[in-house]
Structures are given as C-alpha cells and as structure tokens.
Predict the structure of DNA mismatch repair protein MutT.
Amino acid sequence: MDSAQVTERPADTPVRPAATVVLTRARAGGPEVLMGQRGAGAAFMPSKYVFPGGAVDRADAAVPLVAPLGEPCRSRLAGTDIAPDTLAAAAIRELFEETGLALGQPATWADPPADWQSFAARGLRPDASGFRFIFRAITPPGRPRRFDARFFLADASAVQGDVEDFSAACDELSHLHWISLAEVRRLDLPFITEVVLSEVALLMRGGQQPGVPFFDNSGTRPTFRRIT
C-alpha cells in the first residue's frame, strides 16, 4: 500500500499512518467485539488476534464520504498531515478488505479508486458518522513494522448486510469471529490491543474518557498522554 505520510527516524523503521476499527455489537450476554487472527508468517504481530485495520493508502484522501466524522473526533484528530476524514476512510477500507463488512450508505460513486471498486460495486459510499475516536498509539522503535494508529469505535448496526458474513474477506485475517468482552482476553492478544479493550469495556459500561489515550513512541522516550 502507498503511504500518505512517512516519518523517518535514523536507523529505524519508518512510521506509517494507520487506522483501525473496533467493531462492537450488543448481545443479551453483553457486548461483543469483532476479532481476527494474523498469519503465523506475518511480519507484524504474527499469530496475534487483532482488530481489522492497516496503513493509510494515498487514494484514501480522495474518497468522498457520504457522511463525515463528527465532533469531538474531528478536532481531536486535527493537527497532523493526515486529514481526519482520510483516516476514517482508511479504517472503513481496511475493515471491508479484511472482513467483507461495509460501513456505508447507498449512494452513487463515479470512478472510485482501485482499492474501493468492490465497495462501490455494492452501491455504497463510506459513512464515518458513527465513528468515535478512542485511542492512538505509535509502535515502539525496533519493530519490523511501525504505525501511527488511530482506533475508531463503531457499532455493527451501521454495517450494510449480514455482520456474520465474512465471505468477501481477504486472507489477511483468519478466524474472524465475534467474541464477548468478558471472554476476549482468552485470545492471544498484543499488549496494545489489551489496553484498547480496557477502554472499550469502559465505554460499553457507559463510562467517560478524560481525553483520548495516546501511547506516543515517536521520540527517544515513550510518552503517555491524553488528547482532549
């Protein structure tokens, strides 16, 4: 994939902007979240269970959202070289590629970018109005891949079609399935995914974030702060 932004650090892996969707649904037994497993041979987080997501493509900047991000998400995502709606578009595209699930609304779309043609073929344009920006993390130095990832919470009710149908998914994630927040930590999870899940559990209980958590590894010393 092409990168819309690359931050070079001496003698280290470039940091690529990325976006992730934490898709949830309400069930009688409590909230569930959608997870998938990365391949054993993957360069980044092999065999780990993760949320759908990945790097921003250059074409994501030109995607016409049928409904954009709302506030305060837009303001909290501002101030970088990546536009908030570009990050949202990337998250929707990655969700669609990796799971086959489409967050969109019926609308015409003339001449979509190559990576969006299958999405547009369903008669949809992407819809980011239901997104909530809940987390940001930059991968620490020394990793084979590094990302500046923004995590968006979304409800499965916004998906067009059957949320159990993963037949259109690519092969990047396997074992796609819904799992309750009470059981998800039984999976083999990366540390950062566990931290994000703690935030998701808080929000699902009706709690409030005192700003969006940000694990910042862009400098020489790890920093934690909150984006308000």
Q: What stands out?
A: Residues 24 and 33 are 4 Å apart (CA to CA). The chain has four helices and twelve strands. Confidence is low (pLDDT under 50) at residues 1-11. The helical segments are 73-77, 84-99, 117-121, 191-204.
